Amino acid sequence: MADKQKSEMTFLEHLEDLRWHLVRSVLAILIGAVVAFIYKHIVFDIIILGPSRNDFITNELLCQFGKWFNNFMIGLGRTGGNPDILCMNSEPLRLQNFQMAGQFMAHIKISIVCGFIIGFPYIVYEFWKFISPALYPKERKHARSAVLAISLLFFLGVMFGYFLIAPLSVNFLITYKTSDIVENIPQLSSYVSLVSSISFSGGVVFELPAIIYFLSKVGLVTPEFLKKYRRHAIIVLLIIAAIITPPDVFSQILVCIPLVILYEVSIIISKRIAKKRNTE
Q1: What's the CA gap between 234 and 34, in Å, rounded?
Q2: Torsion of the alpha carbons at 59, 175, 156 and 271, rounded to the nearest 10
Q3: Assuming Cys at both sites, which of 44, 142, 154, 270 could form a disulfide with 203, CB separation 3.0 to 4.6 Å?
Q4: pTM metric for this prediction
Q5: Distance from C-alpha of 126 to C-alpha of 124, rounded to nearest angstrom
Q6: CA distance 145 to 7
Q7: How far is CA 160 from CA 45, 82, 90, 123, 138, in A?
């Protein structure tokens, strides 16, 4: 009965309903931001500054792998290279702040980003609640699992960006020099923007299967279309990888590989939707 009444609302009533969904979503972001703001030592010292330290899990694993591979090559009778070649961010990162409110604004910015990441599942849930009255009962059942899938993809993307791309980016940019007389001492705001934008961008690009799912459901995308323009899509994915990574080929390829895998998964999803549509 409630869904029926909601589907019969006027345009202005729908706008009012949308407003309250947006208000609740913003409140969820603010609550998460307040929690992140209070626990600033955990957010900054452990999370944000983590990729810049040599004891960060990604840096440690790559360093250990480089040393193992070097010993492996020596065991095969070949000349070993530099065993520390994959040991990133070995030097302590020095950050500086030139503005009176610089640290406070960086604190506010990263708190809002954390609030959005923490509240993302609830935001997706509010969006689903808004569109659910327009869906059939069978579609609503699948939509519930879609909320979980969208949230999971987002968190996987954030983790991918944070644990893999962020330390590689920090290491590349902090060690890149045009001259030995120029010392890299980045500003706090620059470092915070780098880590937060990479992590958030990872969450966004990992939503590709979910986007293809909805486009296939409404008939705007077909598996044949995705296969036909696969090469074009790979070029677009390379461009996206170049945008969200530092300007080195290794990082771009490292980001593009999971994007290509997600694109292939999207083709499979589109195939299943098309097959289901043909059998109905």
Answers
A1: 40
A2: -120
A3: 154
A4: 0.82
A5: 5
A6: 22
A7: 20, 27, 21, 21, 33
Q: Are 194 and 154 in contact (CB under 8 A)?
A: no
Condensed to tens digits (0 to 9), the pLDDT of residues 80-103 reads 667 777 788 778 888 999 889 999
pLDDT digits (tens, 9 = 90+) for 142-153: 666 778 888 999
Average pLDDT over residues 249-259: 74
Confidence of residue 111 (pLDDT cuts 50, 70, 90): very high
| Burial annotation 71-106 (CB, 10 A radius, 16+ → b, else e) | eeeeeeeeeeeebeebbbbeeebebeeeeeeebeeb
What is the model's pLDDT at position 220? 80
- With tokens 């030097």, the residue in question is 91
Whose tokens are 């980003």? That residue is: 113
Q: Which residues contact 140 (CB under 8 A, 6 or more apart)?
A: 132
* DSSP letter (8 states) at residue 76: T
Highest mean pLDDT among 48-57, 81-90, 196-205: 48-57
Q: Distance between CA 249 and CA 73 in Å, rounded?
A: 25
Q: Which residues, listed in sequence order, are joined to residue 187 by a DSSP beta bridge? A: 96
Alpha-carbon span 190 to 66, nearest angstrom: 30
Q: Cα–Cα distance between 174 and 181 in angstroms, integer?
A: 14
List alpha helices for 206-248, DSSP H: 208-217, 223-228, 230-244
Cβ neighbour number for residue 60 with a 10 Å cutoff? 14
Q: Which two tokens stand for residue 239?
A: 């461009």
Q: Would you say 84 and 90 are in contact if contact means Cβ atoms under 8 Å apart? A: yes
Q: CA 28 to CA 30: how far, in whole Å?
A: 5
